[in-house]
Design brief:
The complex is a heterodimer of chains A (258) and B (255). By secondary structure, chain A is of the alpha/beta class. Chain A has a domain of 147 residues: Rossmann fold (3-Layer(aba) Sandwich), CATH 3.40.50.300. Chain A has ten helices and ten strands. In chain A, strands 6-7-8-3-9-10 form a six-stranded mixed β-sheet, sandwiched between helices. A four-stranded antiparallel β-sheet of chain A has the order 2-1-4-5. The longest helix of chain A is centred in the C-terminal third of the chain and has 16 residues. The radius of gyration of chain A is 19 Å and the shape is globular. Chain A starts with a strand and ends with a helix. In chain B, strand 1 and strand 2 form a beta hairpin. Chain B is globular and about 60 Å long. Chain B contains eleven helices and two strands. In chain B, helix 2 runs antiparallel to helix 4, helix 2 crosses helix 6 and helix 10 packs across helix 11. Classes of the chains: A alpha/beta (258), B mainly alpha (255). Chains A and B meet through helix 1, helix 2 and helix 3 of A and helix 1 and helix 5 of B.
Chain lengths: 258, 255
Amino acid sequence: MKALAINNLEKRYPTGVEALRGVSIDIEPGAIYGLLGPNGAGKSTLIHCTTGLAQPTGGSIEIFGHDAIGNYAEARQAVGLAPQEPNLDWFLTAAETLDYHAGYFGMPKRERRERVEELLETFSLTEKRDERTRTLSGGMKRRLILARAIMHRPRLLILDEPTAGVDVELRLELWHYVQKINQEGTTILLTTHYLEEAEQLCDRIAFIADGQIVAEGTSPELAARFDVPNLEDAYLALVGRKELSRSHIELTPDEVEA
Amino acid sequence: MSAAQIRFATLWRRECNRFLKIKKQTIGAPMLETFLYITIFGAALGSRIKHLHGIDYVLFVIPGLIMMAFSTNAFSNNSSSILQQKFQGAIQDQLSSPASPLELLLAFSLGGFMRGLTVAVLTFVVSVILVGLPVEHVLVLVPSLFLVGFFFSQLGVLIGVRAEQFDDVAFAQTFVLQPLIFLGGVFYSAALLPQPWETLTRFDPIFYMINLVRYGFVGFTEVSIALSLLALTAATTALFLFNLRLFSRGYRLRA
């Protein structure tokens, strides 16, 4: 059984825009799977279809064998989502954010209480537990969103550009969290614009462009597929910008000496 | 409790917690507004009008004010809660949970219902203490208030789901709801109006709601109670089913 099996997924918006055109992906349990593509390629739409925030117009999605479209309750129970844009409720405190989320997923009160304290501690938010989310810093919001996504112990965690716009320290911190969560057995689907992030974290990577999966494999397999030395050059080849490759940047005399 | 019961209770608790966190605005302000109406129309005008259809003017007015408080609070709570959550994106947390469209709709509806009920009950208690507001027909009053509250909760949900900006909610409240309520006979009897206003009042659905609630409290009505209850039940059911269809389709909630 696959953690996520997407077959021929299509999404056409009422405006006529075809965001997904027959996307198929299989993710094995326990994997960290990367989804790379330029802005507007269909990454977020694919995630929204998987989590019920968008309604596909064709194809199928199964999460650990459960139909995520027609009979979604079991499928959604297995998924945690950390979205690209911070979407915290301004009225809630950090602790309430986690508590309500777990309640939406049917977690009993005593278990919720213990899990909230555990995650506030893990994500260094204990001191902020009673502060409303709008008063938290950007980094704290990011950590709280990740904590919320795993609050109900999902088997599949979806991270939509989790490190977009964060500083180096927080990015590395988030990478550690992601690896730790994965080592505990959670399958992860990660979208990112940072190729080193994908290379560092992901077992397999898919390139998506114009609503279609155009290449899929490990980082070396993708480089070989595009006949280039690394993942970044493979990506540049995909988006038709080979001239931007770092191998074409001429070094200054100082850099050569160094 | 089952997982589904925990889920629904949490969704409902979130909606109630929201208005209780800002109770000065959501409970205090409507209470003050209602008592200002009672003071101005009951005490000031009441000293001149004395009786209407044999009932103390202040007692004639208060049932309409209770109905108005229930309806406007139920409406504004749900419309602004849903729009605010859409605006922040926070509604995604509920939408991506295993909650069914029915659970989501009921939870959003009951948040506003509870706020309206809180303001209505507080107004009722104070009115009993201050002016001895009676309850003549409790078997009409309870279902009438329940239906009025649930109808306006549904209307708030509908406007909140449809709205794309806060102006949309304000427009519905200021330019549609308020005039219908004020012209529905909260402060006067339709029989006192000259034609064509008396006839036009009878086209205002809120006129029937006010008369149901007034009959429940003071025993006076200008409409058929049975027909009004039937029509209100039908309208509330139709609106609920319409909203359920919107939630099932994900209309303006899911892309």
